[in-house]
Amino acid sequence: MSQWAVCGIVLAGRQAATRRLTARLWRQFLLACIFLASFQAGPAAAAPAYEQVREQYRASDIVLLDRGGHPLQRMRTDYQGRRGDWLALNDVSPALLAAVIQSEDKRFYSHSGVDWRAIAAAAWGMAFGQGRRGASTLTMQLSSLLSGEREQRGARRRSIAQKIDQIEAARELERHWSKQQIVEAYLNLAPFRGEIVGVDALARVLFQKHASGLNTRESALAAAMLRAPNASARTLAQRACALLKEMGQESECEDLDLFVRSSLQHGSAVRVDSDGLAPHFAQWVIEQSQPGAGAHVLTSIDADLQRFVIQTVMRRLRELSSSHVSDAAVVVLDNETGQVLAYVGSSGELSRAARVDHARSLRQAGSTLKPFLYAQAIEQERLTAASLLDDSPLGLPTGNGLYIPQNYDKQFSGWVSMRIALASSLNIPAVRTLVMVTPDAFQQRLLRLGLPLDQTGDFYGFSLALGSADVSLLSLSNAYRSLATQGLYGPLQFVPAKGGPAPRQKVFAPAAAWIIGDVLSDRHARARTFGLDSPLATPFWTAVKTGTSKDMRDNWCLGWSQRYTVGVWAGNSSGASMRDVSGVSGAGPIWHDIMNYLHRGGDSMQPPPPSGVVRRAVVFEGGLEPARDDYFVGDTAVSRVRLRGTEKAGDALLRIISPAPGTIVALDPDIPPDKQKLLLLASGTGHDARGAMWHVDGKPAGEGLRGWWAPWPGKHRIELLGADGKLRDHATFEVRGATQRAAIISPG
Question: Which residues form a coiled coil (predicted)?
Fold first, then answer.
């Protein structure tokens, strides 16, 4: 008969036995039963090595490190439990260690894994109906945590056999682990409250501090949670106070109820950390690389630069608060490698949608697409930097009616060179250039630059020249980087590059990309719109372009130096309009400050021109622009630039804007005929414009650049004559409707 059978027979007859045995003898008997049974148990499973347990531990967060290996951002990815970092025993408050030992295992440092006195006392209580008493040591509890038994068992009590197995596992653990390793592992693996597991998560979340700073009161509450993780605030306060009295800290019980309730309110709070510099970047990295929970990911971010960018965004947006600007995003790229050196997705506390990543949100591009359009035109040899473009009123027929673009300042400059048109961001010359390139060809080029255009060129139409498409700051910044690298486009890198940059493809001819950079670095060429002294001007070489979308909803500034590309967006996450803010006054100052920080030594020089770029002295006839040296692709170089045709120097060529060719005019029969007039609108400057004359079907219809004509049904030919009476432009159009009433209108 086994010793368990003997013990069982005696226990079954404990009432009779009680009359014959003293309490002391009963305790000794029960202790002997348990002790003997523990030696009769099967061999315990080999204890895992301490190093193995620590190596396999995984926090519920991914930790991003900057390029120097310093913590940058934590991002939770495992929602099975809220676990922090594994903390060494030296990083845990001595007060917490003392409270846990006092509460859970007073003789921890003197036993070898099993507290036989505590087990005997527990068995005595069970045998004689005195209630259940805990007897598990820290080592026994740790063995359960390591085997996963605690989670599997849930609220059920252990059987006698399970208790014996736990004892053997604890003794095996003590044979291979030191006491310091046991208590360290226990504090890191034990559940404290709800989903909070381990001392690091407990301290960072519930008490909003590092575990090394836990005081006596906080430590007593933590120890009370170990015994009953889901107990009420009142029960926890009572147990914590009892523990404090045992430790001789009774004075800490004052207002303990209030302290406990206050602490428990942080159960779902954000973990307090000093390393929270790039939340939106972290989310992007996790989406791209899918690292496992607990991983430490080395990234390309420069933490010092990241801090400066955040500070700059906050400071500049506070200055713009009266202009109704609350959000901004910034991306800083290394030109050669494509590494992301700084990434700020929002203005944080100033933003009304701080969790929205504005660096990857789609916003209207505005004038930021113009450099790519002109680069394509130069590459195709349709334009040179010295080519003249007409900045005068323009009307283009579309399927939805007449498209009439306007410049930002509602003014016109007449004939200007492509250099002036791009650097000063004139709209109408850009639209005329898109007519030459075609919207479909331009849209295809933008796709090759990584811009997320989801419609065809015909869908966007001529407005694509002015940035009617939606793009993200991240993709747009990388597209600008292709201009900085003389036409080479490559993917972005969020980890430090190993073995050089990623493979790149040629999107623009190097000569065309270099000329665009030269134009965008020319402060004299942009003086018409921005002046000589603006945030776009730097004491070292940079090329820069601004943009503002319709109704001032989006504000852009993108540019590059010899080494870096910086992109800035400013606006409002809601899409609300800003007040009197353009790219140069909104995003521009942020861009300027970051470029100055990056080049504190002033070490940016213009890259040398690639082969295929020709430098030539150019003279503009009629004084259209001052003579200068300019750059050309191959055999497109010229020495003199003049307007073709019969117009005089200084005169802009006369062109009909309205009615555009093919226009259909519908008369309204309910409006008196003498109240219906057709607008005649032309573009041009100088003597020829002042003497312009209109003819409809060969008969005079008005003078000057603007007039009104009384229409009648039928197809008509309109002609625009110069001051010398010679034909300058013509168009055909049709008038429909109101046949009977319109018949009384004389053609004069």
Answer: none
